[in-house]
């Protein structure tokens, strides 16, 4: 007979009581340790808080599998229904190549190479992905002078996560269809699909959501059309520059290690932040606030806050919710470079709270 031990604990402990607002809902973590069993079984949660936090749009049958250490159930494991396209093979090849390059990291380490990787992590991850692609272009949380907007967007292109138009289109669809059958990357289709496998299935995105006709604001600008046509050339140019300056070690750390690091941090927002953490707002989806993803992703881990107020330039809404991207936006606003900075109103916070107050 299989020995089954169920442990209930929380990977994201509650803040001190004086910091915890009445509308916060903690998501319990359940770990089922199964010894001698071939398949994991589902056991109903006994925690009333978990039942209150269940997302109505993702209500699943008792036979659905549960993602480890969470109460999130997988409705169906995503299965590819079309053959691999050239676009899918190219994306998979690039991601695989970056991971292979990382294997050389131990033999090419130097402090200068590491500093190069860390610097590019901040430039492409903070300024490129979180500030530009996400908060500025996807949600229009603030305005920048065009020269600065384009520079930050160019930094994002160097993260090798797609063109601004493609990235923004996918993200807007994610908010439009969050955690439903049409979400481009939801854990209800499986954790690894939400984390990275969606990136290699372009047909699935088209079938779920359609084309990139939701980014007309970017498509009408010549700069973004230029990046759309010449996208791959720009990371290649950076790789050549790094090799010319620092040889193979700079290529390994400045491209391979840095790109893979930013890949998985960005993808953790799609996967981990819809599985582990706490919910502060009644968003009717699986979005969670996750402190450790927030630290790695420059504040993007306060994901339930973001889904409640997607237009907000600030994701860390409490003083203890560290949000590096917001601090940069605030600095740019102080310098007169960021304008029309949008934040949640009192009325919107009352409307999105669990108790409606």
TrEMBL record:
<keyword id="KW-0276">Fatty acid metabolism</keyword>
<dbReference type="GO" id="GO:0010205">
    <property type="term" value="P:photoinhibition"/>
</dbReference>
<dbReference type="GO" id="GO:0016717">
    <property type="term" value="F:oxidoreductase activity, acting on paired donors, with oxidation of a pair of donors resulting in the reduction of molecular oxygen to two molecules of water"/>
</dbReference>
<keyword id="KW-0560">Oxidoreductase</keyword>
<feature type="transmembrane region" description="Helical">
    <location>
        <begin position="89"/>
        <end position="107"/>
    </location>
</feature>
<dbReference type="Pfam" id="PF00487">
    <property type="entry name" value="FA_desaturase"/>
</dbReference>
<keyword id="KW-1133">Transmembrane helix</keyword>
<comment type="similarity">
    <text>Belongs to the fatty acid desaturase type 1 family.</text>
</comment>
<dbReference type="InterPro" id="IPR005804">
    <property type="entry name" value="FA_desaturase_dom"/>
</dbReference>
<keyword id="KW-0812">Transmembrane</keyword>
<protein>
    <recommendedName>
        <fullName>Fatty acid desaturase domain-containing protein</fullName>
    </recommendedName>
</protein>
<dbReference type="GO" id="GO:0006636">
    <property type="term" value="P:unsaturated fatty acid biosynthetic process"/>
</dbReference>
<keyword id="KW-0408">Iron</keyword>
<dbReference type="GO" id="GO:0042761">
    <property type="term" value="P:very long-chain fatty acid biosynthetic process"/>
</dbReference>
<feature type="transmembrane region" description="Helical">
    <location>
        <begin position="231"/>
        <end position="253"/>
    </location>
</feature>
<dbReference type="GO" id="GO:0005789">
    <property type="term" value="C:endoplasmic reticulum membrane"/>
</dbReference>
<feature type="transmembrane region" description="Helical">
    <location>
        <begin position="113"/>
        <end position="133"/>
    </location>
</feature>
<comment type="pathway">
    <text>Lipid metabolism.</text>
</comment>
<feature type="domain" description="Fatty acid desaturase">
    <location>
        <begin position="110"/>
        <end position="328"/>
    </location>
</feature>
<keyword id="KW-0443">Lipid metabolism</keyword>
<keyword id="KW-0444">Lipid biosynthesis</keyword>
<keyword id="KW-0472">Membrane</keyword>
<keyword id="KW-0275">Fatty acid biosynthesis</keyword>
<dbReference type="InterPro" id="IPR015876">
    <property type="entry name" value="Acyl-CoA_DS"/>
</dbReference>
């Amino acid at each position: 007979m299989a020995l089954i031990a169920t442990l209930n604990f929380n990977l994201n402990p509650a803040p001190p009581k004086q910091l915890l607002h009445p509308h916060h809902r903690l998501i319990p973590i359940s770990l089922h340790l199964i010894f001698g069993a071939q398949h994991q079984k589902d056991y109903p949660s006994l925690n009333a808080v978990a039942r209150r936090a269940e997302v109505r749009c993702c209500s699943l049958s008792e036979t659905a599998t549960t993602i480890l250490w969470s109460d999130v159930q997988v409705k169906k494991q995503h299965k590819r229904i079309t053959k691999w396209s050239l676009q899918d093979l190219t994306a998979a090849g690039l991601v695989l190549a970056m991971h292979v390059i990382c294997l050389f990291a131990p033999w090419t380490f130097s402090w200068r190479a590491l500093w190069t990787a860390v610097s590019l992590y901040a430039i492409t991850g903070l300024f490129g992905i979180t500030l530009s692609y996400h908060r500025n272009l996807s949600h229009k949380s603030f305005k920048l002078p065009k020269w600065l907007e384009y520079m930050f967007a160019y930094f994002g292109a160097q993260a090798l996560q797609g063109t601004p138009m493609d990235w923004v289109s996918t993200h807007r669809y994610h908010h439009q269809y969050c955690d439903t059958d049409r979400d481009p990357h939801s854990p209800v289709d499986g954790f690894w699909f939400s984390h990275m496998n969606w990136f290699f299935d372009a047909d699935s995105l088209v079938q779920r959501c359609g084309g990139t006709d939701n980014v007309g604001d970017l498509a009408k600008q010549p700069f973004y059309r230029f990046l759309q046509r010449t996208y791959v050339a720009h990371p290649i140019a950076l790789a050549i520059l790094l090799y010319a300056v620092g040889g193979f070690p700079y290529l390994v750390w400045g491209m391979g290690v840095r790109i893979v690091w930013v890949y998985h941090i960005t993808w953790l927002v799609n996967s981990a932040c819809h599985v582990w953490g706490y919910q502060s707002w009644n968003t009717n989806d699986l979005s969670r606030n996750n402190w450790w993803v927030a630290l790695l992703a420059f504040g993007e881990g306060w994901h339930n806050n973001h889904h409640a107020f997607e237009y907000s330039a600030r994701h860390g809404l409490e003083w203890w919710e560290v949000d590096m991207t917001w601090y940069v936006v605030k600095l740019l606003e102080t310098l007169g470079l960021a304008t029309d900075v949008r934040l949640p109103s009192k009325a919107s916070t009352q409307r999105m709270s669990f108790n409606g107050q």
